[in-house]
Amino acid sequence: MLVFLLLIAVVLLTTTTVFTLLYLAYKAHTVAYFILNTVIIYFSISVKSMSDHAMRVYEPMSLGNLNHAKRELAMIVSRDTEEMGSVDMVRSTVESVSENFTDGVVSPIFFWCSFFWRRWCDFFSNLLVH
């Protein structure tokens, strides 16, 4: 129960902080809002890390060093990699990258579009009018 309450508190604190900062930036100047929003989106999307981890599995596999590839794969999956063959290793790598793509790229973009798209449209329409 304590963990659940802590989770709720962290989510509420983070959300409140982000929305407050965006609100203050919007009130200060539209360009400040645009820049802050861009920075938040940039730090919310995580593509590079999973690509690096997948390449750390691919490189030893391509050289035939399956033991080293298994150790690298164990860093990104939660299953036992010792008994995996090369096909299972590739499947696990692709599955992990796909899941993390959803969590690290698709979800932030979806929620950004849900909450902030209208403000960006207002920002660009104001630029065209003025």
Characterise this structure:
The chain is mainly α and 130 residues long. The protein folds into two domains: 1-44, no CATH class; 47-105. It has five helices and no strands. The protein is elongated, with a radius of gyration of 21 Å.
> Using only CA atoms, what is the Rg?
21 Å
Q: Describe the largest sheet.
A: none
Low-confidence stretches: none
In DSSP terms, counting alpha (H) and pi (I) runs of 4 or more, how many helices? 5
Helix content: over 70%
Q: Structural class, judged by helices and strands?
A: mainly alpha
Which range does the strand content fall in? Answer: under 5%
Order of helices and strands: HHHHH
Quick one: how many beta strands? 0
Count of structural domains = 2
Quote the average pLDDT: 86
Anisotropy-based shape: elongated
List keywords for this structure.
5 helices, 85% helix, 130 residues, mainly alpha
Describe this structure in a few short sentences:
With 130 residues, the chain is mainly alpha-helical. It folds into two domains: 1-44, no CATH class; 47-105. Helix content is 85%, strand content 0%.
